[in-house]
Structure formats: structure tokens, C-alpha cells
Design a protein that fits this description.
two-stranded antiparallel sheet; Isopropylmalate Dehydrogenase; 2 domains; single chain; about 350 residues
């Protein structure tokens, strides 16, 4: 049974609400063993505040003790940590990091198979030990094994990856390079094949400037950086097309013709994605040896404690993490033992000889 680690995120937001609503469906236990990294006391507080159906929690000391057919929880934070719904507090940030740190360590050590992270507040989690823009960068640093992470927002039909992530818009054009885009295209292509099981994926590349720069009139990045990067990626076996102006690309429905879409910056990709798939969208950290997904929404302080948050995105994040685990396993099995070289020798009654050692 696949062990799914779940970090509880910001305890003052909707994290526990979407976690508990998802795990209240007993069918989840038929295909995975959930392990929540958080606090049984905080979980009980949320259950009571939300008047939710009871979800029985099995308190364990570590992931290795997690029981199948149970919702397991590991206490990672101080028992005196106070929940203040709808508020951003230092205590909430500390609790989010404590759970995340423990969960990522277990993921890296193979004690859990995949990780689903509930939303954090990117401000209150900052500390001496966490100086990252978000989950993606932290995962790359502590569990990436030297590989570069790629943020992919995905549903069953749409997959959007980003060249640049959590940086100011004013910095985007300064950090775009041919090598950076080529690297992202190769990582994206590999993930579509290995993690999503797509053969020969077609990737659309978005332009940076309006109207794809109008041949340099509205910007030169397309001609000097993006198109050369696409040509280099094509030389390395990536099927990529464009660059397309983002407005017309999404407005015309052209996005439906591609397996993946590479956006130049955060909002260029995420605004249309969330408009099309907010309820079911999933954030997947591709390119790393570990598997991590999350819902595509934030802490939602404005509705915390009101029992109105939808668990759809979190549920899809859990499903996708399990699917990616299976896709990677299948890919390993398909590629680890290539067919042995064989031939029929004339004059020996067509005796089949194995030449794999020659």
C-alpha cells in the first residue's frame, strides 16, 4: 500500500478542513495509507469548529508505524500551539515548517512514498531555517539530489509549467536565458513522459511580450532568447511549438491541442490555468527524485473555520501523487531490462543464441 505523507500547512487556514474532508471518504483507504504530519490536538480543534463528521485518527510515532486502513497522524508540533483561525501568526508559521521538515525528511528517506502539502503562508513561515519563496524551492534544496525543480500546474487535460516562478515580475526578463528555457523544456518533456505517461508530448511555448514581440517591435526576447531555445530543445528531441501570445492562445482554445504549455512567468500561466481549473487543479513539483503535489489554492484565511472550503483540489492532488508514483514505477519496469540481442544461427536447427554479453 502506498504511503501518502500529508503536511498540515498553516493551521489557521483551510488546510485541516480540506485534509479531513478528503480523508472522510473511506474509499481513499482502499488505495493508500495516509500519514498526516501535524497535530492530533489541532486536528481535533478543526473537527469541532467545523462540526465535521468524525474522522478517526491513529496517532503514531513515525511513518514506519502507520497502519493500513487507518488515517494516521504524527505529532510534529508543540502541544501548546494555539490555533487562531483566519489569522497569520508566527506560531502558525513555525507549526507549518515543523510538519513540512519532518515530512520531507521521511520522504527523502523513503519512509513515505509521496507527499501532499496543504497550503502554507509564504510570509509567516519565513525564519532562520526557512528562507525560501515556497514549497518548490525548499523541496529542491533539501530533497532534490542536485536536480532542478519544475513547477507544473496540472489537471487531467491541462498541464502548465513555468520558466520562472516566485520572483518579481520586474526580474523575469533579466533571468530568461536560452539555457534556462532549454532546461525547462527538457525537464517538462521528461516529466510528461515519465510522470504522466504521455508518448511524444507536444509542448506549446508562450511568448514573453504582447503579440510575441511583433518581430522585435514590442520586445526582442522572442527572437533573441525564446526561439533559439526552442530550436535547441528540438535538436535534443523535444516537440515544442510557438512562441504563442498568451491571450490568443488561451482565448481561442488552442491550449486544448497540446500536452503541455510552458509559460515564461508565474501569472502568465497560472491566471488562465486557475480560471479554467481552479477546483481540480494540482501543483506538482516535477524534476526531482521525490514526488510532491499540493492543491492549487492558498490558505484562504477569509473562509477558514466556516466549513465552506472545497476539498476537490486537495483530493485531486492526492490522486495525482499516487498516479505519478505508479507511472514512475511502470516507466522503471519498462526501461530497466532492454530486450536481449538474439539471432538464429544457420545450420544449427535454428538454435536461438543469446548474445547479450558480447
Amino acid at each position: 500500500m502506498i504511503k501518502v505523507g500529508i503536511s498540515h500547512g498553516d493551521i489557521n487556514g483551510i488546510g485541516y478542513e480540506v485534509i479531513l474532508k478528503t480523508l472522510s471518504d473511506a474509499r481513499v483507504l482502499e488505495f493508500c495509507t495516509p500519514v498526516i504530519y501535524g497535530s492530533a490536538k489541532v486536528a481535533a480543534y478543526h473537527k469541532k469548529a467545523l462540526e465535521m463528521p468524525n474522522v478517526s485518527l491513529n496517532i503514531v510515532n513515525g511513518a514506519q508505524s502507520a497502519a493500513n486502513n487507518r488515517v494516521n497522524i504524527i505529532n510534529c508540533i508543540d502541544e501548546e500551539t494555539k490555533v487562531e483561525l483566519s489569522k497569520s501568526t508566527q506560531a502558525a508559521g513555525e507549526a507549518a515548517f515543523a510538519a513540512l521538515k519532518r515530512a520531507v525528511a521521511d520522504l527523502r528517506d523513503g519512509l513515505i512514498d509521496v507527499l501532499v502539502t496543504a497550503p502554507i503562508n509564504k510570509n509567516n513561515i519565513q525564519s532562520e531555517h526557512f528562507k525560501f519563496p515556497g514549497h518548490t524551492e525548499y523541496l529542491q534544496e533539501v530533497a532534490g539530489a542536485g536536480k532542478n525543480a519544475l513547477m507544473i500546474l496540472a489537471t487531467e487535460d491541462i498541464r502548465v509549467a513555468l520558466v520562472t516562478g516566485h520572483i518579481p515580475l520586474s526580474e523575469v526578463s533579466k533571468v530568461l536565458t536560452v539555457d534556462k528555457i532549454v532546461s525547462k523544456l527538457k525537464n517538462f518533456n521528461e516529466s510528461l513522459i515519465i510522470d504522466f505517461g504521455i508518448t511524444k508530448p507536444r509542448i506549446a511555448v508562450l511568448s514573453l511580450n504582447p503579440h510575441a514581440g511583433e518581430e522585435g517591435l514590442l520586445g526582442k526576447e522572442e527572437q533573441e532568447i525564446i526561439i533559439p531555445a526552442m530550436q535547441e530543445a528540438e535538436n535534443q528531441g523535444v516537440l515544442c511549438f510557438g512562441p504563442y501570445p498568451a491571450d490568443g492562445f488561451f482565448g481561442s482554445g488552442a491550449f486544448e491541442k497540446f500536452d503541455g504549455i510552458l509559460a515564461m512567468y508565474h501569472d502568465q500561466g497560472l491566471i488562465p490555468f486557475k480560471t479554467l481549473a481552479m477546483e481540480t487543479g494540482v501543483n506538482f513539483t516535477a524534476g526531482l527524485p521525490v514526488i510532491r503535489t499540493s492543491p492549487d489554492h492558498g490558505t484562504a484565511y477569509d473562509i477558514a473555520g466556516k466549513n465552506v472550503a472545497s476539498e476537490d483540489s486537495f483530493r485531486h492532488a492526492l490522486y495525482m501523487a499516487v498516479d505519478i508514483f505508479h507511472h514512475r514505477k511502470q516507466h522503471r519496469e519498462n526501461t530497466k531490462n532492454p530486450l536481449k540481442k538474439q539471432y538464429f544461427e544457420k545450420g544449427s536447427d535454428n538454435e536461438k543464441l543469446d548474445l547479450s554479453s558480447e
